[in-house]
Specification:
Strand content of chain A: under 5%
Radius of gyration of chain A: 21 Å
Strand order of the largest sheet of chain B: 1-3-2
CATH architecture of the largest domain in chain B: 2-Layer Sandwich
Number of strands of chain A: 0
Radius of gyration of chain B: 19 Å
Shape of chain A: elongated
Order of helices and strands of chain B: HHHHEHEEH
Largest sheet of chain A: none
Number of helices of chain B: 6
Largest sheet of chain B: 3 strands, antiparallel
Oligomer: heterodimer
Number of helices of chain A: 3
Distance between the termini of chain A: 62 Å
Number of domains of chain B: 2
Structural class of chain B: mainly alpha
Structural class of chain A: mainly alpha
Distance between the termini of chain B: 25 Å
Helix content of chain A: 55-70%
Chain lengths: ~120, ~160
């Protein structure tokens, strides 16, 4: 009984955050702001559902399931990287370098400036 | 010699564990197949990943994971609040430049990924020498505080772990 209440609560929480994340995609105004909604709000949405699924198999079916941990791992690996890709592609097309703050170092931002001639890998070191 | 056969021993271990979790069943055959994948995949990809990241303090890495997991929960609530409660005109998005002192590519990747997953910030670009991260904040009135929090909360821990 208690297990079912906890699992349903997690499902509802996950659903609410997923909904908020999707709503943010419509509501927010430019692409970079919209990136914030799926990279975060959706993470807890999926996380809630996965946690509920793990608890369901553990408490009601009586065996431990590792698939949810894997999904979480893959999600944490892919979400920031695809977010970074989308941001960088958008900025290369739509944002001019002069709109950005200076990088503070000798080299500018990567989409607009070439990297140093000597890359920092083991061949040059 | 051992280094040439196992260029990334932790990666080999991780791949084996991932394989076992994928099939969700621990049998001798699965362990052998997982072990084979853990042996072959790092070997085939090692030319793209020449360095072996050095973990100075593995236990601090565990602490870091929990700090980040907790921050992700907080981040979700904060972003949900901004989306639901603030009108678009009141959302002040700003750029924040985060210079850092990390040297290994793995540490910089983890820092950039962590920034994306945590409160109100998305890392959008590196400077071309990799020494600064350009961060887009969803809603802030104090960019310096955001930068200082990233540096004290994540960069300091990553420096302890990797350097």
């Amino acid at each position: 009984m208690l297990a079912e209440i906890i699992i349903s609560a997690l499902l509802v929480i996950g659903g609410v955050f997923g909904l908020v994340g999707s709503f943010g995609m419509i509501k927010l105004q430019d692409t970079l702001q919209r990136l914030h909604a799926p990279t975060k709000a959706a993470t807890l949405g999926v996380g809630g559902v996965l946690l509920a699924s793990m608890l369901y198999f553990l408490l009601i079916k009586g065996h431990l399931s590792f698939h949810e941990l894997l999904i979480t791992l893959f999600l944490f690996l892919t979400a920031p990287i695809s977010g970074h890709f989308i941001a960088k592609a958008y900025m290369a097309r739509r944002v001019r370098e002069t709109e950005l703050p200076p990088s503070g170092g000798y080299y500018g931002w990567a989409a607009y400036n070439d990297p140093p001639a000597q890359p920092r890998d083991n061949k040059s070191a | 010699m051992l280094r040439r056969i196992f260029p990334h021993p932790y990666l080999s271990l991780l791949l084996t564990l991932v394989w076992l979790s994928l099939v969700n069943k621990v049998t001798l055959g699965n362990i052998l197949l997982g072990g084979f994948l853990g042996f072959v995949l790092p070997l085939m990809t090692s030319i793209y990943w020449p360095h072996r990241p050095i973990l100075r303090h593995p236990f601090k890495a565990i602490e870091f994971v929990f700090v980040v997991l907790w921050d992700i929960v907080i981040a979700n609530i904060q972003v949900a609040k901004v989306i639901l409660l603030k009108r678009n005109a009141n959302i002040h998005s700003q750029w924040v430049v985060v210079p850092h002192e990390l040297t290994s590519a793995e540490a910089i990747t983890i820092l950039a990924g962590t920034i994306t997953m945590t409160p109100g910030t998305v890392s959008t670009m590196l400077s071309s020498d990799g020494k600064a991260i350009l961060v887009h904040t969803l809603d802030t009135d104090d960019p310096d505080a955001v930068r200082d929090e990233i540096k004290t909360r994540y960069e300091r821990r990553l420096k302890e772990i990797f350097q």
